[in-house]
Amino acid sequence: MERKLLLLALVLFSNLTLAQFTDDFSDGDFTQNPAWFGNTDKFIVEEQVLRLNDNQAGQAWLATASAVMDHTQWEFWVRLAFTPSNNNHPRIYLVSDSDDLSGPLNGYYIRIGKDGTDNKRLYFYRQSGETSVELLEGATNIATTTNNRLRIKATRDDAGNWEFWADPTGGELYLPQGNVTDNEFTATQYFGILCNYTVSNASGFYFDDFYVGDIIVDTTVPEVTNLMVTDPSTLELTFNKAVETNTAQNVNNYFVNKGIGPPAIAIRPDETPNRVILIFAQSFTEKEVYTLSVLNIADYQGNVMVPFTGNFTWYVPKEFDVVFNEIMANPTPPIGLPAHEYIELYNTSDFPINLQGWTLQHGTTERQITEGVIPPKGYIVLTHPAALDALEGFGNVVAIPGLSTTALTNAGTLLVLYEKNGPMISWVRYSDTWYRDPSKANGGWALEKIDPYNLCQGAENWKASTDPRGGTPGTANSVLGNNPDTEAPYVLRAGYVDHNRISVFFSESMNPEMLGNTGNYTIRNFAGAVTAAAVYFPDANKVELFLSQSLEPGVVYEVEVSQSLTDCAGNPLAGNRARVGMPEPADSMDVVLNEILFNPPDRGVRYVELYNRSQKIIDLKDHTLSSKDTISGVFTAIREITAESRLLFPGDYMVLTPDPAIVKSHYMTNNPLNFVPMTLPTMTNTRGIVVFASKGQQIIDMFIYQEDMHYVLLTDKKGVALERLNYHRPTQSRSNWHSAAQSAGFGTPGYKNSQFTMDPEGQQKVFEVYPRVFSPDNDGHDDLLNIAYSLDVPGYTANVSIFDSRGRRVRILTRSELLATEGVITWDGATDDNQKADVGIYIIHIELFDPQGNVRNYRKTAVLAARF
After folding, report:
1. Mind listing the pLDDT tens digit for each residue in 239-275?
2. What's phi and psi for 18, nearest 5 deg?
3. From CA 808, how far away is CA 860, in angstroms rounded?
4. CB atoms within 10 A of CB 751
5. Distance of CA 293 to the CA centre of its chain
6. Which segments within 286-375 are labelled E, that is strand?
7. String of DSSP letters for 187-230
8. Residue 60 pairs with which residues in a beta bridge?
9. Which of 10, 339, 785, 843 is the most exposed place for a label (fewest CB within 10 A)?
């Protein structure tokens, strides 16, 4: 008897197990626990979600054992990556007496969507054999987009009463879709899914979180989880669950103290059934603390809330109440955080700030923020929808609809935050140079703001995170510190726009109101006046001045800015002057390549220095830097120098480099403002071609550099710039280039070259040697012996050799070299076997052949000295 009872218990337990089931596919398998069967070759489990995986149009189904339908609840999640129609829709069989869902059967199923814009609903059918009869049409359209995420719940009691619920967002805020009574079939053996699809949607069906079992009675009461003030007379309540319309829209269930009273209108939106919007007849006073009381709100199951009271304050956000505080622009390779882009905002005010309806601009693209509240002195993390699940564990995280997974440019871009009524609240124009660590700029590390109350500074107030995870989303920054802006702003430069417009650039963001006052500008040597001033927003570090009359060619003007101007932090202007003028087109050799660092030091960058040897004002905006194919003669790797006017005045130097700050950290410079950040053309450490040309590809100067042009006795050429000796001599003459002096730090970016050699003044003889005493130790002082010549006609050739005082030849400088009518040949003190010549007296022997073949011999002497 005991064995029979045990056997009966085991049978009942086995039947119960087969009768109800759950499956969230977390095991990555659908062939067991429970076992699904059917077109198993057309489905896969992908990221713990069941997905159709066909490659052609057709029909596919899966079924699993299920034998319960009395007092039963069916629940599931489905994603349709298309808008459903007659040709593309799923059926979810709640009841079936056949394991083949594609053939005749007796049962019930839910269908999602038909043809027609108003038919994207839940439909409930009874199927008898091959005939289907529609029993119910859902109350609302739930699948109207091209990417629908839905959660559906159905229940049936013992008497055959069916009820249907759906959340069109895929959550659990169920809205009633209808009810119907049908008792045609009272037994079942299988549950399953059937997909009908065209080829374009053959992989667009997803299913998850199946539950078939006893009805789960909801006894949870509604609770207010959030209270927000959206405007001076409107409150928005968020509940923990969907609330039914009648009690939610009864204005007598709400009351605000201090004479406000109940709302005039209460709205429970259909699309967000857990939200209630309260509109009051009387406006709230800004910064006043009010109390809202709420009672009698019920859910669809009849559960009534416990009375609620909560405080709120209406506050109008001001500029910089919310600031950009952390930027993960390049999340790969990840260090310790999910590999997703994000932006962290910080609330500097003492009031909670609702971001609903605000706008985030990245570059030129704008996206609306649909939700989110930042608590006082608190944080919120903004990201793209695909990253929400991975980042939601970091606290107050909100996904911005439509935000791209790669919205944040690695190299940097402009970010602007606008309040919903339009005013700009905050902005930042970040750059990958702000990391202050090239290795961290390669990915996985966030940029963090040092002092969130230093509102306007850029690079000076940002650096790479030091947190071992790579960032600190939702919490205080790892680099947090006191870093106030106490630095005085100054005028960087002035630029040319057209004959009666100029621009003035500042070192940092200025007070926009002051910047736009025309009375703050005067122009020396200019008879006209400034008639208007246009400020460039949001940066406010540039202003365009409109002039009453045209600028004159060839005149150098000076813009003077009132020192009453202040930056964003209130620091008064320091340097307040800049030259400006009307630029002219550059001709060949007006601007020359004057210094090149092609083999930078460790953690350094390359640079190219230009020198304006003409009397013209040259605008670098109209020019490019490039390389050149020596076979085809075509320019390659053409790089724009600058998109904005950058004037190069007569006798001025300008350094072109990817990162001016890095160059300045390695080399001393007398002119820190004479740097232009740009991407250089392709250069190697041993050989290359650099071309400075107009945008019309007229070559202004070109230099073919080689590593062996360096001082021969240098053992390490890394970090040593190659300097031009004289900007009046030919660019390609090897004797016109030499390594920068060690005493000058091996580079002189932005100022006179350490090895610069001026041609001798006065009447020059056929050959002239200077200096008479030279010391080739690369200290920048008399390192080279110059053999200058001046000939009456072209066509001369020369042999130039160096002999020591005992008559031994130590160096052949030239052999049958065709000379120009004038020029310079240099000796760096090295012998033919690349050794440094001994200290002593040397004889320079010159054999000069005229065009008729006549020979003249010259002897000059010089002393090679050394410093001890």
Report:
1. 999 999 999 999 999 999 999 999 999 999 988 899 9
2. -70, -25
3. 15
4. 16
5. 45
6. 289-294, 308-313, 322-328, 342-347, 353-354, 359-362, 365-368, 373-374
7. ---EEEEEEEE-GGGTT-EEEEEEEEEE-----PPP-EEEEEEE
8. 195
9. 10
One-letter-per-residue 3-state SS of 560-580 = EECCCCEECCCCECCCCEEEE
Q: Name the residue among 503, 493, 490 with its Cα closest to residue 566.
A: 490
> Would you state the structure tokens that stand for residue 595, as one six-digit string?
């210094």
pLDDT tens sequence across 13-56: 344 444 689 999 999 999 888 999 999 999 999 999 999 999 99
What pLDDT is recorded for position 306?
Answer: 97
DSSP bridge partners of 206: 51, 79
Cβ pair 347, 322 in contact under 8 A: yes
Say what the alpha-carbon torsion angle 541, 546, 547, 552 is, to the nearest 10 degrees: 70
Rounded distance between C-alpha atoms, residue 241 and residue 172, angstroms:
8
Residue partners of 7: CB distance under 8 A and separation at least 6: none
Distance between CA atoms of residues 233 and 427, nearest Å: 29
Q: Give tens-digit pLDDT for 727-748.
A: 988 999 888 998 888 878 899 9
CA-to-CA separations, 23 to 39, 76, 173, 214, in angstroms, rounded: 18, 9, 21, 15
Copy the structure tokens of residue 21.
């089931």
Q: Is the dihedral of CA 732, 734, 738, 739 positive or negative?
A: positive
Cα-based angle 228, 234, 237 (whole degrees, multiple of 5): 40
* Residues in a beta bridge with 231: 234
CA–CA distance, 552 with 722 (Å, rounded to integer): 38
d(CA 1, CA 5): 6
- 618, amino acid identity: I
Nearest residue to 469 (alpha-carbon basis) of 565, 570, 665, 336 = 336
**Pairing label, strands 675-677, 653-657:** parallel
Q: How far is CA 503 from the centre of its chain?
A: 27
Q: What is the DSSP letter of 379?
A: E
Determine whether 177 is exposed, middle or buried from the number of CB atoms within 10 Å of its CB (0-12, 13-18, 19+).
buried
Other C-beta atoms within 10 Å of 1: how many?
5
CA angle 25, 31, 35 (to 5 degrees): 90
Is the Cβ–Cβ distance between 276 and 308 less than 8 Å?
no
Helix (H, G, I), strand (E, B) or coil at 662: helix
pTM of model > 0.70: no
How confident is the model over 549-571, as pLDDT tens digits? 999 999 999 999 999 999 989 99
Q: What are the structure tokens assigned to 570, written together? A: 């209130």
In sequence order, the 6+-apart residues with CB closer than 8 A to the CB of 616 are 583, 584, 586, 590, 650
Are 586 and 548 in contact, with CB atoms under 8 Å apart? no
Say how far apart CA 830 and CA 838 lie, in whole Å.
9
CA–CA dist 254, 277 (Å, integer): 11
CB count within 10 Å of CB 792 equals 8
Partners of 165 in beta bridges: 153, 176
Are the beta carbons of 603 and 662 closer than 8 angstroms?
A: yes
Q: Is the pLDDT of residue 650 over 90?
A: yes
Rg of the chain over all Cα atoms, to the nearest angstrom: 40
**Which of 87 and 758 is assigned the larger pLDDT?**
87
Is the N-terminal amide bond of 333 cis, ω within 30° of 0?
yes
Using the predicted structure, report yes or no on whether residue 5 has a pLDDT greater than 50. no
Q: Select from 321, 334, 337 the least CA-distant residue to 442.
A: 334
Enclosing H/E stretch for 177: strand 175-181
3-state helix, strand, coil in the chain (%, to 5): 10, 40, 50
Q: Are strands 647-648 and 542-547 parallel, antiparallel or unpaired?
A: unpaired
